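ARCHIVE CARD
Drawer: 12
Card no.: 0347
Subject: one protein chain, sequence and derived structure
Cross-reference: see card 0346
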Amino acid sequence: MRISLLEEREDFDKILKVTLEKTTFFKNRKGKIEKKYFINKYLNFIATNTLSRTVFQTLVNEYSSSLTWWKKGIQLLYVKLASSKLFRSFFAQRDILLSEDFKDYLILGGNHRIRLFYGELKDSIVILKSGENQRFIKNDIAIRTENDLSYAPEIFDSENDWLREEYFNGVPINRLKSKERIEIFIELIIKNHLEELLLPTSVEIPLKNYIQLVEKEVFELISDKKIIVKECVSSLIKKVYSKLFNKLSSTIVKTSWSHGDFQAANILVRDTHYQVIDWEASNKRFYLYDVFTLLSKIRSNIPLKEAIENLNKANTNFENAIVRNSDEIILFLIEELRFQINEEFSENFYFSGRKTEKLCHSIISYILE
C-alpha cells in the first residue's frame, strides 16, 4: 500500500519512527544523530539523497511493467528520475528526520509491516510496524520454516518482530502480456500450492471447532478497546457470521495453512521461475481459500458477485480438489470476511471497519438472492 493511502488512515510518520527505533533488528544502533530522508508518497519509498540508485531496482520492476505502452514509458521515466540522487529531493513530497543508522536502506511503506532493501539486493528486511498484531510476523515465519515450499522466498534469519528473506527479482504475473503464459503459470502455481502446502497441512475438524476458531479471532478484534470502530459495524459483523454459519450443511471443515492474500500482485515471475511473496496474512483457514482468492480475482476491487462468478467459471485441471459447492462458497465468504477484518482492524488506524462494513452488506445481498 502506498504511503499516500497509509497517511489517510494512520499517523504514518510517528509509526515509522517508533517502529525503526524499537525493532530488535536495529538493537545495535549507534546513537540519535538524525538525517534528512525524502518521502515519495506515490512510489512508496523513504530514502536519503545519497542512497545508491541500484537499491531502487525493485521499484523499477513494479512501476515499469504497465501493459499500456505509453504508461510504461512515462512511469519508467518518472521512477528513474524520482529515484536518482540528483532529483530525489525534487520529486519527493516532503522529508522526515530519522536516525542516520538507516541511511543505507531503502524503506518501503506497508499495511502492517515495512520493508527495507540495501546493498546488492540479495535479501530484504521485513519489520512489523509498532502497534500491529504479532500474528503478522509470527505466522509468516512459522508457515515458511515449518513447510518446505519451493515457491516462497527463503527466510535467512528472524526474531519476534522482523525477518530477513531472499530477494526475488521479478514482475507481478498480472503484468505479463501473454494471457496463455499467465494461464500456464496459474495452473502450475495452484498445483504446487495444493501439493506442497494446502493438502499436506490439511486437517478435518468438526464444524463447531471451526466456528469457535473464527469467532475467537474475529470477536477479539472487533471488541478490542484500543481499536476505534462503530458499534453498529461490530453488530453487523456478528449478524453476517451468524447467517453464514447457519448456511453450512456439512459437520466437518477441512482447514490448512494458507497464504491469505494469494493474488496475482503477490506472484512474481522471471523467465520460467516464480515466487509468491508477502506472507504476512498467513493463517490456518478453510483449505481452498487461497485457490478461490486467486481464481475469483477478488483482490482486484471487483464486486463480490462478480468474484464468485469468476470462481464458478474458472477452468482448472483440479476439479477433483476444487468442487465449488454451496458449502465451499460459504466457507470462502467466511474466510474473506475474516481476512478483511484482520486487514482493517488495528489500533494504529484512525478508524476501522469501513471496507468491512461494505463487504458485510455485499455478503448479505449475495446470500439473500
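Annotation on reverse: The longest helix spans residues 179-198. The mean pLDDT is 93.
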